[in-house]
Amino acid sequence: MTSLNSLKRMTMRPNKRVGRGGKRGKTAGRGTKGQNARAGRKKRPEMRDIIKKLPKRRGYGKNRGRSVDGTRLSAVAISLDRLEKLFESGAEVTSKTLAEKGAISTRTMPPAKIVGTGALTKKLSLKGVAVSQSARLAIEKAGGTISEK
């Protein structure tokens, strides 16, 4: 016959129920006073309160404006003086020719914008390059043409 000490337990032991008097005394195993000693104690996480106090949608990252595209390259400003030095009279100026002449990077190919600093005496035809208002006047005055595409 088997003895009691060799029997296997068939069910789980019940969980210790704490905080109901009995042999535990004083804090009944709960350790502290106040909110921590009460039943169903739920302290709000402190970090959450700190985060909620911060202002929303400031700066970069996930809070940056939805219309801002961080991957888009900003335009490189090219002066009329630079065009005067780089191109011959009657030449066609495109972003490709600007890259070949070394005015913009050939690796990243950022958009170029012609700005009206300096003077232009050569007749140039610009295609697909952004032009400022003052540069447009100077190019047309020199006899050049500007087309969007």
Would you mind describing this structure in some detail?
- The protein has helices spanning 46-53, 80-86, 95-100, 133-141, and strands at 76-79, 92-93, 112-115, 125-127, 130-131, 145-147.
- With 149 residues, the chain is α/β, with parallel strands linked by helices.
- It has a domain at 76-147: Ribosomal Protein L15, Chain: K, domain 2.
- The longest helix has 9 residues, at 133-141.
- The termini are far apart.
- The mean pLDDT is 87.
Structural class: alpha/beta
Write the H/E string, N to C: HEHEHEEEHE
The main β sheet shows up as: 3 strands, parallel
Biggest sheet strand line-up: 1-3-5
Number of strands: 6
Strand content bin: 5-15%
Would you tell me the overall average pLDDT?
87
Q: Give the terminus-to-terminus CA distance.
A: 100 Å
Q: Which second-level CATH architecture of the domain at 76-147 applies?
A: Ribosomal Protein L15, Chain: K, domain 2
Which shape, going by the Cα principal axes?
A: rod-shaped
> What share of residues is helical?
10-25%
